[in-house]
Every structure is written in structure tokens, then in C-alpha cells.
Amino acid sequence: MAVSGAEGGIKNVSSKGNGLLLYHHHYSFYSQKVVMALNEKKLSFESHLVNLAKGEQYQSWFININPRGEVPVLTDGVKVIPDSGRIIDYLEDNFSNGDTPRLIPLDLGPEVRQKVTQFRNTFELIPAGAITMGSFLHPEFIQNPRLPFIQPIRRLLLAAEKSNSGNLRELAENNPEAREILLRRAENQDAKHAALENKEEFKKVLRQVDVVLNNVEKELSLQSEDKANHWLCCERFTVADVSLTILLDRLARLGLATYFWGADKKPCLKQYYHRVQLRDSYKKTVPSTLLNLKMLFMMKAPLYIGIGAVTIAFVAIGGVFLFKKSK
């Protein structure tokens, strides 16, 4: 059950099941990892959506939960666990009994466990934010982007990103309890944007991703016919598969699928991505078209993206949706 945010504090939530409460956003790359892990482990949890477009992650009520002003954050009773990697480790350590499967297998031998860990750590090094914003700055690499990263949303997000450091500095002046964090974020934002505007720097990022995906293709190609239903590291879906799935989906939605695995490139990877989209955990994690529309309608705070621009985008995407439904 989604719980709306509060301006001055956290609303009381009547938790169900195991009492897990996840603060996240549907479009957050790292939030999606945790949501998919929760779904793979078949864990029930409460969902508190943090409106990133409105800047809720920098409001005092959320800074009190996570001083870094980042989603996702998981709470389990009085315990507060930030960072997607730490959250997944916490779930593995505390919820891996009975009907709750492990995402890091302990019974398949050290070789499998080492492979899972190696791929997971490799995926963690990929700068998802730089890829996302770099694709907006250099559209010549993009073909057929998908919701939510279609025009005019790409233009809106790029405009918001360009003004974000200024907005962060303004927020810093109005929120003294988060001033240091916000100013540091503003400085980092300026540095990252300056680097990403350089096409050659963005190409370096793409090459880094391509090296990783080539290694994935090699690993998948080594699987024999009797292992056709195996996943990346073994017959079980692991934490490495969670990270790979969310990475592939982000690349595809940005319009980078053709660049990385189009035509005859990486056929095993292409088949893997097709298979993983059939999993229930994927379907429960990745926003549907209707949810995309709902979430974009929520992006209405003038602080980050103007209400008029979002209304235009909402109508435009709604038109695309209606067109597809009428075909």
C-alpha cells in the first residue's frame, strides 16, 4: 500500500506482515533493485513513495530518516537501513528461511557464490545516473526510447537537471538542518554535469558498460543446452540477476538497447532480457503504462519541474497510450 508523504514528518503507518517499510520512487534505479529483490524473496512490505520531483528527499522529515537524502531506505521496526546494497544484504541475512529464497545461494558451492558476488560488484560500479543524464545530453546514441524516458519527458528532465544545483542551493538556505548535505550535492551536480556535457566522457561511460555486457554475454554463451533455463550464474535467480535486470531495463528504456545489443550483437543477452521480463518479480517492479501516467502527473511541483510543462507531457504521453490502445 502506497503511503503519501508528509510535509513535516512521517505519517503513522499500520505495517502488515513482517513490518518492512520501504521509502522509494518507482523511477529510481536503486529503488527498483530493492523492490525486485523483495518480490523475488516474496516478502510483503509497505511502500512509501518519496516524490523526488518535488524534492521530498531533502525535506526535514526524510533527512531525519536518511541524512544523505537518498532513496531507497528500508525500515524494519526501529531499524533504518539505507543504500540498496545494504538493504539487500539485510534482507538476505534476516529473511532467508522457509518459503523465502536466498538471492545469494549458500548451498551451490563457493564457485557459484564467488561468481554471484563478482558480477554483483561489477554491476555496482556502473554509474546509472551518468548513463541516464548522458543519454539526454547526447541523443545521437539513442534509438526508440520507452516510457518514461520519451519526449517531451527527456527535455523536462534535462531542463530540471540543468537547474538542479541552483534549486539545491536555494533549498539549502531554507533548510538549515540539511544545508551541508544540499550544498555538497549541488557541487557534485555541477561537476557531473560538466563532465557529461563532454561527448568523449560519455562515450567512456558507454564503453565501460559495453565491457561489462560483453563479459555477461560470454558467461551466458558458455551455458550448455541442458542449462538453457539457467540464469547468469546458476539455475537460480540471484542478486546478480536482480542487478543485471534493472540495468538492462534502464538501458532499454533510455533507448540504448540497439546500441548495446541490437541486430546480431549479444544474442544471449538479448534472450536473457526477453526471459527476465516474463518473471513476476519484474512485472511487479517495473512501472506499467498506467503507473507511468500516474507518476508523471505527480511530478507537478514548480520547484523542480513546472506544472504547465508536466501537464503538456502528461497529455502527450496520454495520447501515445490511447493511440497504442486503439491499434
Structural class: mainly alpha
Tertiary shape: globular
Residue stretches low in confidence (pLDDT < 50, at least 5 long) are 1-17, 300-327
Q: What does the main sheet amount to?
A: 5 strands, mixed
| Rg value | 20 Å
Compute the number of structural domains. Answer: 2
* Number of distinct beta strands: 5
Strand content: 5-15%
Overall helicity: 55-70%
Strand order of the largest sheet: 1-3-2-4-5
Number of helices: 14
Distance between the termini: 33 Å
> What is the mean pLDDT?
84
Kindly report the oligomeric state of this protein.
Answer: single chain
What is the string of helix and strand elements?
Answer: EEHEHEEHHHHHHHHHHHH
Report on this model:
By secondary structure, this protein is mainly α. It has 2 domains: 1-103, 3-Layer(aba) Sandwich (Glutaredoxin); 124-285, no CATH class. Helices cover 56% and strands 6% of the residues. It has 14 helices and 5 strands. The chain has helices at 29-40, 60-63, 84-94, 110-124, 128-137, 153-174, 179-196, 199-221, 239-254, 257-261, 267-276, 280-285, 289-298, 307-326; strands spanning 2-3, 20-24, 46-49, 73-76, 79-82. The chain has a 5-stranded mixed beta sheet with strand order 1-3-2-4-5, covered by helices on one side. The chain is globular, with a radius of gyration of 20 Å. The two termini are 33 Å apart.
